[in-house]
Amino acid sequence: GENVEQHPSTLSVQEGDSAVIKCTYSDSASNYFPWYKQELGKRPQLIIDIRSNVGEKKDQRIAVTLNKTAKHFSLHITETQPEDSAVYFCAATANSGYSTLTFGKGTMLLVSP
Amino acid sequence: NAGVTQTPKFQVLKTGQSMTLQCAQDMNHNSMYWYRQDPGMGLRLIYYSASEGTTDKGEVPNGYNVSRLNKREFSLRLESAAPSQTSVYFCASRLMNTEAFFGQGTRLTVV
Predict the structure, then answer these.
(1) pLDDT (tens digit, 9 = 90+) per residue, A10-21?
(2) Interface residue of A36, A87, A101 to substitute, partner B, most B CBs within 10 Å
């Protein structure tokens, strides 16, 4: 089955700095890579996703890059704000009716004012 | 459009008691999932149902059973709760290879 590794487990930055979270996956059949943000006591919610036919995707201050050859993908947050503080999860899944969505262990991002 | 609805939100059980967590989605999704979330462990898959009528084990299925009652509903049952099952449980649903939507979670404590 798929295995997703995520680093770092915690990340502390100053407001305005950039933050980068990295993930690797094991299954070369995986072709959909979502990122979720989970605020304290809340459910995970999608913030951005990327498919394997795209190398980079941006949405305002967040971007995701994908390197299929190396089997890794990264989340980039620029101009961080205190409200970006949360746990971020990466995930991977293959385009199969029986494929599951496998998550990394999460990164706690702390943005200090 | 309520999305994914999960009940209950909180539950305290004594060791050995049983309970069923309910999950329903109104987005006509084929796939439904049950995850548990523990500190430092991320979201670990317990069971999933790729489509109505099918269920499969995930990473941590021991001590749990599931039922895909129909396309909308997917329940998780603990037959004999153990303290190791203290966790936050999330139900999720999605169409194949698209975004997963999560329920609000169930915080379960087994004493």
Answers:
(1) 999 999 999 999
(2) A101
